[in-house]
C-alpha cells in the first residue's frame, strides 16, 4: 500500500502518461506523488494554468515510478501500488481517502458503507464530495465506491472510466 505524507512545500513537476483512459497528468515532488489528473481536467483554463506553472519532466523518479506501476495495473499485472503520496485536503477528506485505500482490489463498497465507517450513514453526501475531491484517483481507488444496489454513480473521471476500472479489476 502507498504511504501518505503531509509535506506540501516541495516544488512539483508534471509528466503526461498515455493510458487506456486517455492522457493522464502526474504531478509529483521529489518525495511523493501529489495528483493524477484526468484528461478532461486540463480542458479548464484554471487547471491548465496551474500545470503550466510547473516544470515538465520526462524522467522524474516519482513520476516514472508512478507511470510504471500504472501501466502494470492497466495490463492486469499489479493490484496494489508502492508510491509515496501527499494527500492534501480537509481532515474529513483524508479520513475518507484512507477508507478508500482499505478497499481491496476487485472489491467495492457503497457510499453508505463508507459513511458508516466514518461515523454514520448521514455522512453519505460528505463522503461523495470527499471522494469527488480525491487528488490521486486509481491509486486512491474512489472508483471502487458504488451507489445503493451497486449503481455506478458519481465519478470525477466519468462513469465510462469507472466502469472500465471496475471491469479491469474484476477480470483478475
What would you note in describing this structure?
- There is one protein chain.
- With 172 residues, the chain is α/β, with parallel strands linked by helices.
- The chain has six helices and eight strands; from the N terminus they run E-E-E-E-H-E-H-E-H-E-H-H-E-H.
- The chain folds into two domains: 82 residues, 2-Layer Sandwich (Double Stranded RNA Binding Domain); 82 residues, Winged helix-like DNA-binding domain superfamily/Winged helix DNA-binding domain (Arc Repressor Mutant, subunit A, Orthogonal Bundle).
- Helices cover 35% and strands 17% of the residues.
- Strand 3 and strand 4 form a beta hairpin.
- The protein is globular.
Which features would summarize this protein structure in a list?
172 residues, alpha/beta, Double Stranded RNA Binding Domain, Arc Repressor Mutant, subunit A, 2 domains, two-stranded parallel ribbon, 8 strands
Strand order of the largest sheet: 4-3-2-5
Query: Mean pLDDT, rounded to whole units?
Result: 91
Shape: globular
Portion in helices: 25-40%
Largest sheet: 4 strands, mixed
Element-by-element helix/strand order: EEEEHEHEHEHHEH
Kindly name the structural category: alpha/beta
Total DSSP E strands: 8
Strand proportion: 15-25%
Our count of domains comes out at 2
Low-confidence stretches: 4-8
- Output the CATH class name of the largest domain: Alpha Beta
Distance between the termini: 18 Å
Full CATH superfamily name of the largest domain? Methylated DNA-protein cysteine methyltransferase domain
Number of helices: 6
Write down the Rg: 15 Å
What is the name of the CATH architecture of the largest domain?
A: 2-Layer Sandwich
| Fold-level CATH name of the largest domain | Double Stranded RNA Binding Domain
